[in-house]
Amino acid sequence: MTIIVKDIPLGGDLTDFLSVVEEIYAGDPNYVRPLDLELSGRLSRKNPFFEHAEGAAFVAYENGLAVGRCTAQIDNAYTERHDDNVGFFGFFDTVDKQEVATALVDRAAAWLRDRGKARMMGPFSVSSNDEIGCLVDGFSTPPMVMMPHHRAYQGRLLEGAGLRKAKDLYAWRYVVGPLPPRAQKGYDQIAALPEVTVRQIDKSNLAREVEEVMAIFNDAWSDNWGYVPLTRAELAKLGDDLKLILEPRLTVILNVGDEPAAFAIALPNINEHVKGLGGKLFPTGAASLMYGMKVKGTRTARLALLGVRKKYRTMKRYGGMSTYMYAELAKSGQRLGIDWGELSWTLEDNTPVNLGIKLMGGKIYKTYRIFDKEL
Predict the structure, then answer these.
(1) Quick one: 161 exposed, middle or buried, by C-beta within 10 A (0-12, 13-18, 19+)?
(2) Which one of 6, 34, 101, 294 is least enclosed by Cβ atoms within 10 Å?
(3) Beta pairing partners, 66
(4) CB of 172 within 8 A of CB of 353?
(5) Same CATH fold, 174-367 and 3-169?
């Protein structure tokens, strides 16, 4: 067996890179092929991530047939913030052959090593603010919006290629229903505070709202593992992306007095309608997607972003803020016909957040793994 790995520079021909998943995930009823347009945009030089990063894509071939893919990227903003000489790999998808996985990992490692990196980590597709992790547990359900999916063998192939576990991430399943008594108590405590007000995101002023939300996020997440703040250009892109799928009724912003103190954003799970498109928006996919979202709606949603400013996390008076927001989203979801939601992702060692989700009745149902390797 001869495995050949070909380099694809940013902006190059991604045809095989995009289509190889049809071979890899054939027969997997839970795979949802990402939209080619969105994925191509993420790997384009026009993506503002690449204003402070560089990268390349790779496709593995066996006897002329595409059988695997991955990327390698260097994020200078991550290096500067964390003082860590690490490079990243992402979009790791292969058939069940160790030789293919090893060839891809080795090519990404060589690309990073040639640029002076001492360690590789991933999958990050393409940054810590995008899809991250390899699914290692929970293969029996489709992925939620902006979350990855993998075959059960792919984590094993990464280990066989010399990578080891760096960190696990959890996705939690929460069935919409009555609040547990302790959660109801935390909700009532926040609701009774006269200085706390609640509102939803104003979609007509989304650029301003994104700035306000990310100011909270940057304060709340600044000490978290892997955190890199978004640039202004990345914030603008985030606003444009959210404009297409954001449901204001699945958002919460809490103010303490005049200060925005906490926020939570859940997203309708558009994967319910993307699944049948085969990655293609044209010629009919866009109309089908819009019809599905506007007429049918979704039965599931994903809590994708949540943050509480640090100073409020240390005040007992405001200790129930996260619970309050979980409850508000649950009530809104119930009104919208949402049956259950995913809360993702959380770090395996983020005990306070994980305990708060357990308090709401959430249960871990998927585990994603970040791998690393010395170069």
Answers:
(1) buried
(2) 294
(3) 61
(4) no
(5) yes
Tens-place pLDDT, residues 253-309: 999 999 999 999 999 999 999 998 888 887 777 788 887 887 688 999 999 999 999
Q: For position 1, what pLDDT does the model report?
A: 66
72-130, pLDDT tens digit by residue?
999 999 999 998 899 999 999 999 999 999 999 999 999 999 999 999 999 999 998 89
Question: Strand, coil or helix: what is 354?
Answer: helix
First to last CA, the chain: 26
Which residue shows structure tokens 């095989």?
16
Residues 6+ apart with CB under 8 A from 322: 262, 264, 306, 308, 353, 356
Cα gap 267→250, rounded to integer Å: 7
CA distance linking residue 20 with residue 64, whole number of Å? 12
Domain ranges (residues) in the chain? 3-169, 174-367
Structurally, at CATH architecture level, domain 3-169 sits in 3-Layer(aba) Sandwich (3.40)
CA distance 43 to 57: 8
How far is C-alpha 243 from the geometric centre of its chain's CA atoms? 17
Amino acid at 24: I
Residue 339 and residue 176 in contact, taking contact as beta carbons nearer than 8 Å: yes
Decide: 53 and 45 in contact? Cβ < 8 Å.
no
Compute the distance between CA of residue 117 and CA of residue 109 in angstroms, rounded to an integer. Answer: 9
Local structure of 228: helix, strand or coil: coil
In sequence order, the β-bridge partners of residue 3 are 62
